[in-house]
Amino acid sequence: MTYPASESHPPAANSIASAAAATSDDGNAREPILATTGISKTFPGVKALQGVDFRLFPGEVHTLMGQNGAGKSTLINVLTGVLAPDSGTIRLASEIVAFASPQEAEAAGVRTLYQEVNLCPNLSVAENIFAGRQPRRFGAIDWPDIKRRAQAALARLDIALDVTRSLDAYPIAVQQMVAIARALSVDARVLILDEPTSSLDDSEVAQLFKILRHLKQSGIAILFVTHFIEQTYAISDRITVMRNGEREGEYLARDLPADLLVSKMVGHERMSERLREAAHEASDAGEEAQSENTAPAFIELRGVGKRGTLQPIDLDVQRGQILGLAGLLGSGRTETARLLFGADRADSGTMLVDGKPVRLRSPHDAVRHGIAYCAEDRKKEGIVADLSIRENILLALQARRGWWRKISRQRARELADVWIERLGIKASDAEQPIGLLSGGNQQKALLARWLATDPKLLILDEPTRGIDVAAKFDIMDRLLALCANGLSILFISSEISEVLRVSHRVAVLRDRRKIAEVKGTASNEDNIYRLIAGSGE
Ligand SMILES: Nc1ncnc2c1ncn2[C@@H]1O[C@H](COP(=O)(O)OP(=O)(O)OP(=O)(O)O)[C@@H](O)[C@H]1O
């Protein structure tokens, strides 16, 4: 990720100065389609929103940016009737509204796509698109019509799927597209997308942005939440920065250089320098480590594969090193991780841990060998929403010790507090239910869970998904420091730049097999993209 330098004429800080330009920059005054005045919302111990003014114009993409816990999701929840504000007003096309439920907001044309895919995995794609509003014929559900309409809704997104198959037959990225098709399948005046791209690969993001541009031209107002800075600039007309529950400022995207945006998000102007330094330090550490590649392997795979899932693969993860896995969604990255963790059983090859052959029949076996797996889908395979942050962090450690050897309450608290502090998890108390944390903070707690087990190999599958840019650098720094103490990491991310920044070596996967392994000067983005695209072998 690169941060373009500030222009010599930065926009006024903490202002709606540029936003006032919403009237002048376009030449004529326009009314926002959706606006809030003085919205506040407090949860026990947290002021999630404080006097927030916000406006969204028709025919624009407006991006909401801020660190984890800044209040983005809460603002969206207030706008869409999920939460009632404590004070303040919301206007839809200049009329004061108070949506009592998301259904009411939807009926008024405010459509939302949430951070996590919130569909029914075992219903068909078509049923998911039309759930709750199936077309009927003579009182009965008209299945052929549903199928036709579902196909048409997906065709708008340039996707062809078998709409009769159940949703969970498709990867998360495709499920996300289905959720978008659902959101667009009825008339929308406002489309709100909360981190829609976190599980999409580059070409899918490009496809989504094409659709958003098309929708914007038709006059729809789009509110977009993301942590990806490059995506923000690729799609946004306007940016609102949130910080600690307050609106820091509203800017035209073209007036706000990226490094200034980051400074405004984190709250001090020197932060952008700090981030650049961190990026350099991390890449220096990576280069240094690449040059001395003689560490013994912690884990070795020799021809390990599983029919229909992963072609036999050779892979070594050395002690104290980070092996990156690069490849598109569906290339076999997660499948490799699951075999290494015993979540799927290999049907060929040999696996060695510390030079000795092992058979991992279950995740429990893997954990006993010091292997930890921080999974990609935190909702399905990760957090237990009703348990406290402390219980969630201690879960893997407790499982490894055995449930009959309970960790004392005091020790558990101490450990949880250490990890909450180390990873900067924003919570009022370790006893809070984890489900109440913001998405990024949940992700950090999941990372804490596995780090608390003091693993020898940590498998990280999209570990920074949903994590803000400052925390991302911070986590990378911490991972590199842990490696210096002997931890091995298998690092999986869709962001090739992120993989390259931290990895000592990068294995490139395509079509469920390893096609190359690169290090040193060969590990640059262009080369890896060429390999992934099949033109660099
Ligand atoms: N239902 C709730 N009960 C208690 N606290 C909550 C609840 N929902 C959100 N919070 C807290 O309010 C603050 C704002 O959270 P919010 O989810 O809006 O942040 P966010 O900017 O969307 O973060 P992220 O980028 O991590 O998704 C956080 O401190 C969060 O823990």
TrEMBL record:
Short name of any one Pfam family annotated for the protein: ABC_tran
Location of the region described as Disordered in the Swiss-Prot/TrEMBL record: 1-24
Keywords associated with the record: ATP-binding, Cell inner membrane, Cell membrane, Membrane, Nucleotide-binding, Repeat, Sugar transport, Transport
Highest rank taxon of the organism: Bacteria
Gene Ontology MF terms: ATP binding
Ranges of compositional bias, category Low complexity: 12-24
Annotated Gene3D superfamilies: P-loop containing nucleotide triphosphate hydrolases (3.40.50.300)
PROSITE patterns named among the record's database cross-references: ABC_TRANSPORTER_1, ABC_TRANSPORTER_2
Record-annotated ABC transporter domain positions: 34-269, 289-536
Protein name: Sugar ABC transporter ATP-binding protein
Organism in which the protein naturally occurs: Paraburkholderia phenoliruptrix
